[in-house]
Amino acid sequence: MTVQSTLRHTAAEEAIAEFVDKYTKRFRSRLKGTSRTTRLLAALALAASIILAGEGTRRRWKRRRLEREQGKKLVRTNSFLFNKDGSRTIYVPHQNGTSKVVIHTTKPLTFEAHRRLFLNPPRVSGLRDGTVPSAQTKPGLNLAFLHQFLSLMSIMIPRWTSKEAGLLVSHGVFLMLRTYLSLVVARLDGEIVRDLVAGNGRRFLWGIVKVSPSIAPARRLGHSILFILGTNLGFYQ
User: Fold this and answer.
1) By the 8 A CB rule, do 147 and 117 touch?
2) Is residue 48 part of a domain?
3) Same domain, yes or no, for 148 and 173?
4) Please, are residues 46 and 67 in contact by the beta-carbon 8 Å criterion?
5) SS3 for 82?
6) Has residue 145 been placed in a domain?
7) Domain boundary among 156, 187, 214
8) Which DSSP symbol is given to 34?
9) What is the pLDDT along the chain (237 residues), one digit of tens a residue?
10) CA-CA distances (angstroms) from residue 93 to 59, 90, 100, 102?
11) Domain boundaries, position 207
12) Which candidate, 120, 123, 98, 228, places its Cα nearest to that of 174?
């Protein structure tokens, strides 16, 4: 059994080495065919990109460090910051550090209109005026739950042509796409493990090539879902 495992591992290593050597030789042959000026410009572009990326990373790290220090100070004093647009920025404990949360103020007219939804039943509920369940009624599968649910839906989605309706539909579509991508990636991961155990180097590399394009869409979908949860659909503003 030990000899067979060693042979399989060696075959996989040979396939990977052959793949790397093939494309290394192809890259070197193309590089030799370029002129000296092209090489110099490429080297300058590479150096400039490395310098700019390093400077951007340094500034971003410095900005995050200042925000982290400010957040720890505000958390200790239980304070917040006023922004120019009237919103407030608070820092809340998150894991080993702090997280910044921006709270936008609600207009008094909007707040009063939303408050009346809980006093007067929406038309779609079918309830008449004066039939609103009392505040002492415990919500369950009853009229109190129906009244509160429809009132909240009227706030979340004012009309079906609003931005919030589009966000809700997009959120559902993104969740379904992420579930589908998760199933596809799980199946490809199973094939990669199978080929790795079997010592099939070419199919193992081809599996990695197939699973690579699905990484960026999966990350993008995750960021999109988090973005939608951070809009008016997830917070009352």
Assistant:
1) no
2) no
3) no
4) no
5) strand
6) yes
7) 156
8) S
9) 444 444 445 666 777 878 888 888 877 777 777 777 887 888 899 899 999 999 999 999 988 888 777 777 766 666 677 777 777 777 766 666 677 777 777 778 877 877 777 777 656 555 555 566 666 666 666 677 777 777 788 777 777 887 878 888 888 888 898 888 888 888 888 888 888 888 888 888 888 888 888 888 888 887 777 777 766 555 665
10) 24, 10, 9, 14
11) 159-237
12) 228
CA 129 – CA 114 distance, rounded (Å):
16
Beta strands in the chain (DSSP E): 81-82, 88-94, 97-103
Name residue, tokens 């490395």. Answer: 50
What six digits make up the tokens of 70? 């400010």
Q: Let me know whether 168 and 220 are in one domain.
A: yes
DSSP 79: -
pTM: 0.45
DSSP track, 150-209: HHHHHHH-SSTTSHHHHHHHHHHHHHHHHHHHHHHHHHHHHHHHHHHHHT-HHHHHHHHH
**φ and ψ at 73, to 5 degrees?**
-65, -45
DSSP lists the bridge partners of residue 99 as 92
Q: Which pLDDT does position 109 carry in this prediction?
A: 82
User: What's at 192, amino acid-wise?
Assistant: I
